[in-house]
Known about the structure:
This protein is mainly beta. It contains one helix and seven strands, in the order E-E-E-H-E-E-E-E. It has one helix at residues 72-75; strands spanning 9-13, 20-35, 46-61, 80-88, 97-114, 120-128, 135-138. The longest helix is centred in the middle third of the chain and has 4 residues, at 72-75.
Amino acid sequence: MPSYLTGNDGSITFPNAHGAQFNTWNATFSRNVSDITGYGDTGRRRQLGIWDVSGSAGGFLEFDAANTSPGVADMAEDGASVVLIARQANTNLSGVNACSYSLTAVISDIAITSTKTGDAAVSFNFSISNGTIPTETWDEA
């Protein structure tokens, strides 16, 4: 009987600004489908094309006293390193990503909220940007 994948984590590194600690993420992995049906065919012909990945993430902004320029314009650059972790390799969260996806992404939009109780949340949408499929690490050991 299979066990179910539980656990969560994730990170993002912006090239010239602060990062965020995720507490939620989602990603859609898709491939373009081209219709290559020609005259005389009696049924549809389709062919898979290139990969695409898009998604969103949310959590809390990281604070670094040495960072004096964490502007949103810097956060929305090309080349953000996104790591989506479905399960850590061990229970003490040592940073070993047992089941994860890593990709270089464009951050298309960012929403920042602040509440009276002190929460400073951030959410953003991302799409793969470097022309390669994400690196998948999957170790269920």
